[in-house]
Amino acid sequence: MVRFLKGEAACIVDEALVIGDVHVGFDRELEQSGFRVPNLTDKLVSKIKELVEENECKELIILGDVKHSITLRPDLAETRRFFDSVKKFVKPILVQG
Question: 26-37: per-residue pLDDT in tens?
Fold first, then answer.
């Protein structure tokens, strides 16, 4: 069964939270372009945790682009930190985009 979450770019399929194109590291690219933005990874992890807990999900399915840039090295560390954080409360599953 699929259940769309009102006001969220996510849905629930069985016991899995499904999201797409999280683009971890996008904030780093903005910084390199001269924009000052807070780290968005922590906010993303917090939102995912909130949705997982509210909907009692056992898995997180991520569709498409997890990492924003394939060339920025800082994105690799940020992506690793994202998964280390998420794995503490839900099983992540990646679907290549």
Answer: 887 788 788 888
Question: Cα separation of 47 and 36, whole Å?
Answer: 22
Each residue of 48-87: b (16+ CB within 10 Å) or e? bbebbeeeebeebbbeebbbbbeeeeebeebbeebeebbe
* Chain mean position to CA 25: 11
Tokens of 94: 């990646």
Positive or negative, the Cα torsion across 82, 88, 94, 97?
negative
Rounded distance between C-alpha atoms, residue 74 and residue 76, angstroms = 5
**Cut 0.85: pTM above it:** yes
How far does the chain reach from its first CA to its final CA, in angstroms?
23
Distance CA 85, CA 46 (A): 9
